[in-house]
Structures are given as C-alpha cells and as structure tokens.
C-alpha cells in the first residue's frame, strides 16, 4: 500500500524559509502525480504545488499565490518529494499535506484534491 511520511515544516518569521519533505513507498517511483495541499483554519483546502516526473522530463504546477516563492521537486531515486518555501508570508500558515495518485501524464499535474487519493499525515507550518 502507498505510504506517505512527512517531515519538516515548523514556525518561521515572515520572509523566512522552510523545507517540507515527503518520503513515499509502495509504488514504482515513476509516472505518478504528487502534490502538496494546505488548509488554514476557517479556510478551504487548496492546492499548493504539484509535480509529475517520467523519464528525463519533470513538469510542475504552482498556485498563483506561491509562484516565485515555492519550489517543488521529486527525487525518483529516493522516492521523496520536497517543497522549498521561501519568502514566507502569514497567509502561508496552515496544515500541509503530501498527496499521491497512481498514473498521470504531461503536462503539469492538476491542483485538484479530487485527483489524489493517498494523503500524508499533515504537518503544521506557521508564519508570523
């Protein structure tokens, strides 16, 4: 079965940086959608960034609110997805979730939570 274990996150002052990682298992590490979602109190869950990697090509998608500040990556050899978050803002505060679905294709993956049926445990990110 697919397992997703998150690490990182934490608390930081506005303008700072955090790195959030997700280690996956239970799947062949190629040709699948993976993405990050987040949810703040009293707000709906939203997509943050997604990545699809197959062969020598990797496509990424980002919410407009994080473009230029966040970078998503996937290491196929390590079965790990990473979200580097720079220039953090208070609006970035929330519970962050690593997600996965079997299959996919180019171009960049959609940031639609209905597309992802495996979820990590969630990790809090707080920006003040």
Description:
- The protein has about 130 residues and is mainly beta.
- Helices cover about 0% and strands about 50% of the residues.
- Strands 2, 4, 5, 6, 9, 10 and 11 form a seven-stranded mixed β-sheet that branches. Strands 1-3-8-7 form a four-stranded antiparallel β-sheet, with no helix packed on it.
- The chain is globular, with a radius of gyration of 14 Å.
Question: Secondary-structure map with pairings?
Answer:
Elements: E1 3-8, E2 10-12, E3 18-25, E4 33-39, E5 46-54, E6 57-62, E7 70-75, E8 80-85, E9 94-101, E10 118-119, E11 123-127
Parallel strand pairs: 2-11
Antiparallel strand pairs: 1-3, 3-8, 4-5, 4-9, 5-6, 7-8, 9-10, 9-11
Instruction: Report the average pLDDT across residues.
Output: 93
Number of separate strands: 11
Alpha-beta content class: mainly beta
Q: What overall geometry do the principal axes of the alpha carbons give? A: globular
Strand content: over 45%
Tell me briefly what this model is:
The chain has 128 residues and is mainly β. Helices cover 0% and strands 52% of the residues.
Essential attributes:
single chain; 128 residues; mainly beta; seven-stranded mixed β-sheet; globular
């Amino acid at each position: 079965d697919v397992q997703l274990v998150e690490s990182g996150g934490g608390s930081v002052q506005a303008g700072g940086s955090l790195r959030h990682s997700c280690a996956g298992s239970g799947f062949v590490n190629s040709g699948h959608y993976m993405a990050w979602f987040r949810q703040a109190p009293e707000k709906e869950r939203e997509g943050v960034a997604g990545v699809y990697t197959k062969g020598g090509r990797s496509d990424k998608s980002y919410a407009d609110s994080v473009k230029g500040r966040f970078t998503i990556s996937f290491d196929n050899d390590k079965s790990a997805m990473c979200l580097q978050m720079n220039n953090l803002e208070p609006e970035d505060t929330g519970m962050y979730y690593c997600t996965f679905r079997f299959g996919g294709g180019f171009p960049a993956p959609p940031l639609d939570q209905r597309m992802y049926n495996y979820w990590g445990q969630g990790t809090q990110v707080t920006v003040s």
